[in-house]
Amino acid sequence: MNVIYILLPLSLLLGITFLVIFIWSVKKGQYDDLSTPAHRMLFDEEYENKKRKNL
C-alpha cells in the first residue's frame, strides 16, 4: 500500500512532463509540415546533383 503513495505522484509528474514537452514542440512548429520530409527523401539525389553542377 505504501508503494502507491510513491508511484501515483511519480506517474502524474511524468505524464505532466510529457504533456508540457508535447505542447512546447507543437508551439515550436515541430509538426507543421509532415509530408515534405517524406518527399524530400525521394528527391535527395537529384538535389545533390544540381548542387554539384552549380559549384
What does this structure look like?
This protein is mainly α. It has one domain (2-54). The chain contains three helices and no strands. It has helices spanning 2-27, 36-42, 44-54. The model has no long low-confidence stretch (mean pLDDT 81).
Give me the number of helical elements. 3
Instruction: Round the mean pLDDT to the nearest integer and report it.
Output: 81
Globular, elongated, flat, extended or rod-shaped: what is the shape? rod-shaped
The rounded Rg comes to 22 Å
Q: Approximately how much helix is present in the residues? A: over 70%
**How many structurally independent domains?**
1
Beta content: under 5%
What structural class do helix, strand and pairing data support?
mainly alpha
* Total DSSP E strands: 0
N-to-C SSE series? HHH
| Assembly type | single chain
The largest β sheet comes out as: none
Poorly predicted tracts of residues: none
Between the first and last Cα atoms, what is the distance in angstroms? 70 Å
